[in-house]
Each structure stands twice: as C-alpha cells, then as structure tokens.
Amino acid sequence: MNTIIDNDLRIDKVKCGRFDNNAYIVRNSATNECVIIDAPEQPENILALLGNTRVLAILITHNHMDHLAGLDTLRESTKAPVWVHKTDAPAISPIAEQHLEGGESIKMGELEIHSLFTPGHTPGSTSYLINNYLFTGDTLFPGGPGHSASPENLATIIQSLEENIFPLADDVHIYPGHGDNTDLKTSRSEYTVFANKDHPDTLHGDVLWLSS
User: The pTM is what?
Assistant: First the structure.
C-alpha cells in the first residue's frame, strides 16, 4: 500500500489480485467520507483499510473483469452505489446505480471528485479527478496509453488524452489502474515525441510514446 496525505485529502493506493491492479481509497479525513476507485480481486485488501469511513460511491474506470472481480463483495459490504459510464454499464448491470456521461461530480465535504469521459481502452472508460490527482484506469500509464484493440481504438484514446487529460495542469499526478504513478508534465512531454513521428496506420496494442 502507498498513502498520500494532502491536507484533508488522503489517498490509499491498494495493490490487489493476480494482475497487479491498483484500487484507490480517496478520503476526506475531515468528514470521514471516501470513494473507492475500481474493484479488483482481493477486495478484502480494500475493506481492511476503511475502518468506520463512510463510502459514498464505488467509482469504476471501465468494465474489464480485472477491475470488477471484487465488486459484488465491495457493494455488499459498503452498501455504496456503483458509478460507471453508461456505455460500459451493461456489462455490470443491474449493480451499477449511477450511469455516467462525463462531467458528473461527487462531494466529500469541501473536496469534490469529477468524472472525465476518456474512451478508447473501452467505449466507456472514465477517469476521475480530485484536486491535482487523476485516476486514469487503463487509459494512461507511465510511458504510454492503455492497450488498444485496434488502430481506431488507439485514435480514440489519443483523442481522449488530447481533449480531456493533456490540457490539465503540469502538476497533476497520474494514478493508473496498474503499476507505478507518473505526472502529467512527463506524460505530455513523452506524447509530444510520439506525436511528432510518423506511424503506420495499423499501429495499436501496447504503444509506448518514446519507442513506438
């Protein structure tokens, strides 16, 4: 586990499951409220950290099963509503109570977490922003975008990044769905290298900004 404390904001990054998934508990220490981001295997790792914190919502970044394997347990244990983009919701219906479009927000006292529609890895992929912390699911990792199943999907991820993520401030911290963190200044700089090179029309899959 890795913990960041920024005034009343506390973020616990929790490693879970066989696929090196990251789940996050995003908490307002002043109000004792939180949201959980993603629901991978080993949900007990998440539940063990909640204590008596009130869970306002379980926020899903996308509908791949490695991010959903613990959802039934988390939902039953916390009674919190499940938020997911409407395009990805059918895969987890009827458990998803809040179908997002992008632009929704949830308040935790003075703190507010916002949904950003960032499709490409899946049609309904969603990132979540609170202050200068961005939870990108499988849309953006250190060094490159998330896996794309086709050239069209890669183009969609890049459009999502250009329109909804890269315009954010340099000091935004990127917290992905797997692996290590990065920051937006670094990601944007690496993407600029990629964008200034020629690429085959068939490019997709596991793309790296500096070497693809």
Answer: 0.97
